[in-house]
Write a structure and sequence with these properties.
The protein is an alpha/beta fold. It folds into 3 domains: about 110 residues, Rossmann fold; about 150 residues, Heat Shock Protein 90, CATH 3.30.565.10; about 130 residues, 3-Layer(aba) Sandwich (Rossmann fold), CATH 3.40.50. Helix content is about 50%, strand content about 15%. The chain is built from 14 helices and 17 strands. The strands form 4 sheets. Strands 2-1-3-4-5 form a 5-stranded parallel sheet, with helices on both faces. Strand 13, helix 10 and strand 14 form a beta-alpha-beta unit. The longest helix has about 80 residues. The chain is elongated. The protein starts with 7 loop residues before the first strand and ends with a helix. The relative contact order is 0.07.
Length: about 550
């Protein structure tokens, strides 16, 4: 049992003999009932004791000189801490109803009449002692419960914080996993085209024009790979503070104008309405890094704005800053993504068609480069389909300038007929040219819908289908071809940059016969086509015999 302080009983009586008689009786039972007895001879002394101790009950003589029992009781109960102490009035005469009412009004809990009968005294006192003991136990338990609640609250807060930290770490880990999968996909596309072009160059009978186109494709796709690697290295250096700026005075209007010319030269801006307002303005910065900022923002606007949309690019002087604004009428940014748009690896919802492409590090690099120049970047959007606005602010400075440029590619096509459905122009051209050189009759389509239409009209023996297609993806192409009796027999080969076991399962579930991961070597592709021929012919014969019957 916990060590609970003994309840106290206060006896107040001005008559020494009566006081001794009461305390002697109470002391007889004190050890057994576990209480203490205190005694005083006046109302004033009683008030002093009440200030010092809590009492289970007070035995208070009614008739005392100076401050009588009623006055003493009233004073005790006026104080908040002692307001609930039960008081038993001790009186020598049988109180009439008026006196009883007066006593109860002063806070009396009960009466004892002298001469006191010991058994009655003990019974009455024991009730209040037991009650005080229980109350103290409850108070201690409540105290412990409160302490335990405080501990549990602190533990809960700690666990909540740890869960939030774990969730944040899991989100970062998930974002990195998605990024690595995306990186693999982005690298496989150019690698596939390079591998095909290199194989084509080494083929006997490849003409000068074919070799020339293959070399151009290798060069262009190598440059694309180089840009991916440069972006990764630049971001790594920028995040670790290892980029050193070669500062010089730059007219940002000239620099941004030069970036725009590069995009125009590559045909990237042909399908958009461009509003350009470039007021001259100078900053102290690294031309290469500032060009990266401008190029990434313009590329971002082109990437996320459908053809026919509007892109506005302006430079203005605002106070002590030069402000570059790139505004588009594109897909916009959802409210939940907007606060994270400059975080590393964030690219919005990642879909299988990968229509936008990219690694999701461009805006993170823009922010870090702007900060290294003492500037800032911000993004605004009213939500999905509402377009977006990016704003770069750089400290204004004094005069000089900078520049840049890039190039472009084509197709043709006799064994089992092959339909190639691939949205990457270079990859499609190289694979088509290689298959043509090996005697395959090749037709091709640049997206899923066009591929389904061509399969229905030409009914090839084999269809090589890229999974990451715009419009409808490769899975849907396969499902539609399998549903149509006219195209159900076509042998389907999936071509994808995604090579996990889950990707292979999805490919087979969609109705494909084979799954090839980019980059695909010519030997691997020819082997796949070779394995398709007997099955394709068997399906064709089966379909023809069923139609005849």
């Amino acid at each position: 049992m916990p060590n609970i302080e003994k309840p106290k009983i206060l006896v107040v009586n001005d008559d020494a003999a009566s006081l001794l008689a009461l305390t002697s009786l109470l002391d007889q039972w004190a050890e057994e009932s576990n209480y203490e007895v205190l005694a005083v001879r006046s109302g004033h002394d009683a008030l002093r004791q009440v200030l010092l101790h809590d009492f289970a009950v007070i035995l208070l003589d009614v008739n005392m000189p100076g401050m009588d029992g009623f006055e003493t009781a009233e004073a005790i109960h006026q104080r908040a801490r002692s307001a609930d102490i039960p008081i038993i009035f001790v009186t020598a005469f049988l109180a009439d109803e008026i006196d009883r009412l007066k006593a109860y009004q002063r806070g009396a809990a009960d009466f004892l009449f002298t001469p006191v009968i010991p058994q009655i005294l003990r019974a009455k006192v024991q009730v209040f002692v037991t009650l005080a003991t229980r109350n103290e136990e409850l108070r201690r338990q409540a105290q412990k419960l409160s302490q335990r609640t405080t501990e549990l609250t602190a533990t809960n807060k700690r666990l909540t914080r740890e869960m939030e930290e774990r969730q944040a770490a899991e989100r970062k880990s998930h974002a990195k996993d998605e990024f690595l999968a995306m990186l693999g996909h982005e690298l496989r596309n150019p690698l596939s085209a390079i591998s095909s072009a290199a194989s084509l160059i080494g083929m006997a009978g490849a003409g000068p024009d074919t070799v020339g186109r293959a070399k151009t494709i290798i060069q262009r796709q190598s440059q694309h790979l180089s840009r991916i690697v440069d972006d990764l290295l630049d971001l790594s250096r920028a995040m670790s503070g290892k980029i050193l700026l070669a500062r010089q005075p730059i007219d940002v209007a000239v620099l941004v104008g030069s970036c725009l010319e590069t995009f125009r030269a590559t045909g990237r801006t042909g399908n958009y309405l461009l509003n350009v307002d470039l007021a001259p303005g100078w900053v102290d910065g690294d031309p290469t890094r500032l060009e990266q900022i401008a190029s990434n923002l313009i590329d971002n606007a082109l990437k996320y704005t459908p053809p026919g949309g509007t892109i506005s690019i302006s430079i203005a002087e605002v106070g002590d800053e030069m402000v570059l604004t790139v505004r588009d009428s594109g897909v916009g940014i959802s409210p939940d993504l907007l606060p994270h748009v400059f975080d590393v690896f964030v690219q919005g919802a990642i879909t299988i068609d990968r229509a936008q492409g990219g690694l999701g590090i461009g805006l993170a690099l823009v922010r870090r480069l702007a900060e290294l120049h003492g500037g800032s970047v911000s993004a605004r959007s009213s939500g999905a389909s509402a377009g977006s606005t990016f704003e770069i602010r750089l400290p204004r400075a004094a005069p000089v300038a900078a520049v840049a440029t890039i190039p472009e590619a084509d197709i043709h096509g006799g064994k089992p007929s092959v339909l190639l459905i691939e949205d990457n122009d270079d990859g499609r051209e190289m694979m088509s040219t290689m298959l043509d050189a090996y005697g395959y009759a090749v037709s091709h389509a640049a997206d899923g819908m066009q591929g389904v239409e061509m399969a229905s009209s030409t009914v090839p023996d084999v269809a090589v289908v890229d999974i990451g297609l715009p419009g409808i993806d490769g899975y849907e192409v396969a499902r539609r071809l399998r549903r149509d009796p006219a195209t159900r027999h076509i042998k389907l080969i999936a071509l994808t940059g995604y090579g996990l076991a889950e990707d292979q399962r999805r490919v087979l579930d969609a109705g494909f016969d084979l799954h090839l991961v980019k980059p695909v070597g010519i030997d691997q592709l020819l082997s796949a086509l070779g394995s398709c021929v007997p099955m394709a012919l068997a399906r064709w014969v089966g379909a023809a015999s069923r139609a005849a019957s």
